[in-house]
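Most newcomers find our protein records easier to grasp once they have seen one. A learned vocabulary of local backbone shapes supplies the integers on the structure line. Here is such a record, shown just as it appears in the course material:
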Amino acid sequence: MLACSERFIAAALAVASVAGLASGQQAGFVLFPSETAEQFEQPPEHRFVHPVTAPYFHENSFVTSDVRAWFIYHEFPTDQLIGGGSATVAAVQARLAITEWLQLVAYKDGYIDFDTPLVNDDGVGDVGAGLKFAFLRDYEHQWFAAVGVGYEFPWGDPGVLHNDDEFRLWASMDKGWGKFHVGGTFNWFIVDGENQDLGNSDRLSWHLHADYWLTEWFSPVVEVNGFHVLDAGASPLPFQGVDVANFGQGEDDPVITLGLGGEVRPAEDWAFRGAFEVPLTDEDDLYGWRFTMSIVYSF
């Protein structure tokens, strides 16, 4: 009986130690664990900040278990057909570490409210989910890389410029030098429904990230996002929707944005982040400016 109690206490302590390791690089909870907690021990300044801007498409290389709540306020340009106005988005993402190398990612959903002269409606967005495989995890040299595949289901409302389906392939790499961390993500979107009324287009996007562990509770963040249309699709509209809506136009006219923000960590498993984003290009698109904020709970 005493031996059983000792084994139970030892197991409980092991679970508690793993749960306490939830961070930007590794999951505290793993559905099918195969590695010990000691293999993940890293200095706190090696903690990477998860991407803040372009939350649907900017996926880093780490296998984590977390829930992320998002709020986005997006201002549209007045000199485009949409005629100015704004959109707000509220969404929740979930990530689950199946193993230390494999992650289930529910990356897209949300409630969208358009308030513009052209589109004045609200409803739910499409739902996207996929799997990420972290094929490189070098904690000693802070090198990480992953690939992923996802599918967007056409469950959204056409009134908010959704209700299209597409395949998504992505690859990412992250590198750290002590307190300084950088990363990049590349996406390829292959549409399945180009004959929709709004049309759609095959697209590429890329996302760059840099953060610096200034203190145990704060890291500044700089991010750059790029969106490229590969074909004009069937859309009659003279602009592309970047990550706001499911259509694309303006082939060979990229949209590039800059986001400045930071992350505040009031507790070990909680993070509050925000960023202000503006376009760097002067193309036909839906980008005026944007404010993004999110709360991350890691477990």
Remarks:
- The CA atoms of residues 67 and 94 lie 5 Å apart.
- The chain is about 5% helix and 45% strand.
